Fold these 4 entries.
Entry 1:
Amino acid sequence: MPKNIVQLNNQYIQDENQRRRYLEEERRKKNRFMGWVLILVILLFILPTYNLVQTYQTLLERRQQLTQLQEKYDQLSKAKNDEKDLAEKLKNDDYAAKYARAKYFYSKEGEYIYNIPDLLPQ
């Protein structure tokens, strides 16, 4: 016993179908709008994130550069102090004569100079 199902096609059914299509179209428009808003929000977060990462990399480079400059400063300070100490020592005539004789091989008349490595006075 097959049953035949017949759909009524009266004004109420047509109005309900039209209302359902209208609601479905409104939902699609709302979903499309929310999709565009989501894309816009993502784009708005990408640019600051990119800038933040770039700034962080620059900060790391500057920290590394600061460390190198501090090391160079320490080396130059040590060299300056060594030169200052040498200048103070060279004010002593005996030390200056000994230094000149050791470094530049100056000698008094009748003296022989023998070069011994690492014998230069400090």
Note: Helices lie at 11-90, 93-104.
Entry 2:
Amino acid sequence: MLSFQSFLNQEIFSVGSYTLKVHMVAMILVIIVGTRILLWIVKKMLFRKADIDEHKRGNVQAVYQIIRYVLWLGAFGLALETIGIKVTLLLAGSAALLVGIGLGLQQTFNDVISGVILLTERSIKIGDVLEIDSDVVKIQTIGIRTSKGLNTDDISIIIPNSLITTSKVINWSHQNDKTRFRIDVGVAYGSNVDDVIRILEESAFEHPEVYDRELTEGRLMGFGSSSLDFQLLFFSKNTFRIGSVKSDIRRNIVRKFAENNIVISFPQLDVHLKQSED
């Protein structure tokens, strides 16, 4: 027993009055292992329901991320105390240095604060479909500094959290699991308005991703310079791949217009030539 205690008290190295001993390193390892075990237990408790849906899983993941960062921060402070570094004195003594670092890493700190806001406020969750700067992205992870999303081309995008909190972001998944979309089309003057509306609605009905037949509506929106302007409104749950859905519906519209002799308009200009009198 004495030999083991003497082993723990052995010096690894010393610098001036500071000495690093074996038991300090052992305590750091215990702190790291203990933190990992505690996080594993917390994760198992939070995700104990196997049938949890995607939106609830995003909420639980946000809570787990907050707990994870807090535990690791506490473990880091405890490790510093274990090796004889007083955290309070370290922060007080390096106040000027921290100010300089803060100015240099202002954007990074902004991203970190934004990440804390996202994780605590939970206005955006994992699995949400967002439109950010005209890009449609499905959120996969929310980190403390950056979030990772998947765009419609199946390309992973790293998004600074400050971009989400400071920019105008459309969350297509925030309120409901279905979203209303629209398709605009213009037809030639002289076309039968009722036939056009019927064809627009039928073109949407034929697609399996259109949510509700009763909520699908074709409208005459106005009288353009070269066309009668119509709009097709429909709901779909496939918000992430809506570009493909719209493409299929447009193909149906083109086919049905051709079958019913309805012409999709294009800009036209009449030019009148005035003959000069000799």
Note: The domain at 179-259 is CATH 3.30.70.100 (Alpha-Beta Plaits).
Entry 3:
Amino acid sequence: MTSRSPAKNSNAFKWLVTFLAAGHFALVFITGRIRWEHVAADLLLVVLAWAGAGPRRFLRGAFPLWLTGMILDSQSLWLGVRGTIHTGDLWALEKALFPAPGGMIWPEWWWHNPNTPLDLLCGFAYAAYLYEVFLVAIWFFFKKDRRFESLCWAFFVVNAIGVVIYVLYPAAPPWYVLQYGPGPANLAALPSPAGTARFDAFFDIKYFANFYSRNPNVFGAMPSLHAAYPLMMVLVLWYRGTAWRVGTILFALLVAFSAIYLTHHYILDVLAGFIAAVVAFVVVRAVFARWVSEAPQAVPVPLPSGGNTRA
């Protein structure tokens, strides 16, 4: 049995990508959710697939990023099948495990005790956490480092873990409980920038207001993907040495603190995000290690008898 030629594999990949992009575009159009970024993302996917070997090499590695965007953006389509929405139990457990002064929990305490330096520091961290992943991925690509593909797939897996938990255990964030209380879930509740609204107000912008207005799932606090992404970067860049380890760890801790300070997540959400990041990293790393070990090795070509072996 012979394997398919590289040309046939390339053509199959191009048509698969085109089919998926067209299917996604049709889905958002039919469901009335189409926005300019849908058109841009799907069009970019097709262009990269057909533009040549270089762009296609990038797309093969980065394809999981498009898949991630698709599943996160499509959350509104399956909200009807999620489990019972939890509004007060995480708050109660948080209060029992991590009590703050005055009988409060720490997201609540920070909500009542904000300060401008922390608003700015945490706002910048919350704005930059996603770009860290993309910048490192692009860096790996231009270095022709195999970690480019594994990072993109790990990013997809950690988001898939988050989405599955959002379905099985939909949970209200702290800002929701502060605004609506721990009673029955208010399905009409709108997404909120919470503490990041103070960052917007300081600079007189609507960066976070616009960002969170597109959030299709208010009840997706557990786990915190904000905390998961930077920790994954710690694991991915650990091999770079002490300076990179210290820098990525400090940034991961800052984003984790920001999630709590800005009232978007409980400490429990952050810990769950850390676990999701570790699981995704370990699973993808194991799969890629197995692929490498099972890849056919080049067979050395014997020199002709009596041939000159010198260069």
Note: Residues 82-294 form one domain.
Entry 4:
Amino acid sequence: MTPDDRLAAQFAFLNEADRLKSVLRATTLCDGSRRENSGEHSWHLALYALTLADQAEPGVDITRVIQMLLLHDLVEIDVGDVPIHSANGKAHASTETQEAEQRAADRIFGLLPPDLATRFRALWDEFEAAETPDARFAKSLDRVQPVMANLQSGGGTWITYNVTLDQLDTRVGSKVARGAPALWDWVRAKVAPFFA
């Protein structure tokens, strides 16, 4: 690959990634004024990682966590946002959704030069698997950010999808607690009165 071809591939990926700003999520901004887009969500999560790094288990590499969070939702360019509570939690976990996300990852990361494609895809796959300490922390932040937005906006998608505290504990709390247990304890104490 020539230097010119490499730059062309890098910009093709970056231009495609710009489309993430047009993907609307179910979650609203904290003030409830409008739905956030997936680009805003990814930026906010990177800021969450930087700010809440002290909540990660020892040895977590926050730089890698930020990289995962910047990449994790790029597949939504093709698939769209699939809210965790939609279809009573089944839409998010469906095999169809996961296969569509895999195809989107192949296409989007495939725009990059091979070395970057391999590295970015590996970070995306690691985030999806949520088995390493870095990925568990990244996944925890991805789950807790919408909780905080819903809390700040007076219920947001919890109202839209008739979410119960039990569902929140199962679909969100268990994932947050895997990577940031003290963070979930604090957040849950703030959330519980909303469901009382």
Note: The mean pLDDT is 94.
